[in-house]
Amino acid sequence: MVLTLDERDEHQLVLLFDSALTRCPQLVTRGDDEVVVVSIADCQRLGGKRPGFIEHPRSMPSADGLDLTRDKSPMRDVDLGD
User: Fold this and answer.
1) How far does the chain reach from its first CA to its final CA, in angstroms?
2) 21 falls in which pLDDT band (50, 70, 90)?
3) Domains, the chain, ranges and CATH?
4) Predicted model pTM
């Protein structure tokens, strides 16, 4: 799709792009429709590669030093009523 813009519209578009690049994502509305103009850097940062199944547990803190031995004390008596 090719758009032909007059000078005023082109200037507004440049301001929109500049704000998205230098400040923060820009919300554009048209009636009930909304879009966000975001820089490529922000887009890549927000939607970057997510860790796969194997990478996720590998990125967790180490369990070294964590005592995982089972408690040998007897279970407590519970009155369930008759």
Assistant:
1) 77
2) very high
3) 7-48 (3.40.1620)
4) 0.49
